[in-house]
Amino acid sequence: MESKITQLKRIASLPANIRTNVAALRKLHLDMVDNDRRKNELELDLRRLYEDSCEKRRQIVTGSYVPKLADLPEGYLGMVDHSASEQPGGVPEFWLSVFRMSDLLPGMIRKEDEDALRKLVDVRVLDLGEPSPGFELEFEFEANEFFSDSVLKKRYLTSGTEIYEAIGQDIHWKEGVDLVGKSADSFFNFFNPTQYATSDPEKHEFQLKKDFEVGRYLEQWVIPRATAIFLGRDDDEQDEISDMLEDEAFCGVYSLDAETEALLVNSELGE
């Protein structure tokens, strides 16, 4: 308190124009504090909206929520009466398709993994917070013939922006269908807490680095952009051709002839 009083006496003795400048600095500081508070509140609100959107996506994918007109793009013409329809609900194989369409994950998936991944109904990320900062990936499965777990988890502990530890879980495989036991390259090795046990430090470090890369990729790219990946979009930019093709596809139409399709594919490869 003594230093504060001393400083205030010093400020009081300054010329009037400098005191005015200091008063303006205090006003600016209080505005910055208020803006920071509002930013934190806005981030919390946006986080809740994001989580609500992810939950609604899960419900649409599983078929537990039937989209209403307000949920659909403006001008959408493909609305059906779900109550009278005998067609399947939800979006079958959504996450398996997302994984196949992504950049890093296809190489992790073996043909033997696909039937189990067809049962995957949601992938979500949880912020761990203190005392062990990091994030946890949760893979939710419907009942299946492969394992008894309804949710498989992979936890990443972080220091700042760096991941320093990955913690998997044991999968409770049903008799005769242990996919990890059948192939060391199975996607489900991702959850194996001892998969990186090795006497070679360099190999161990390389494996951990690749695992951390996949964890971040799922957290920051695949989960937030799953629908865009499912639709074949590379980014969040608006694209009139993609919009048109998507709108047509939603209505059961595909209008590109082979020549135009080849031109689009070749132009994309040339970028």
From TrEMBL:
Domain of life per record: Eukaryota
One of the GO biological process terms: nucleosome assembly
Gene3D superfamilies: Nucleosome assembly protein (3.30.1120.90)
Record InterPro entries: NAP-like_sf, NAP_family
GO cellular component: nucleus
Family listed: Belongs to the nucleosome assembly protein (NAP) family.
Alphabetized PANTHER family for the sequence: TESTIS-SPECIFIC Y-ENCODED PROTEIN
Listed name of the protein: Nucleosome assembly protein
Gene name in the database record: 6039733
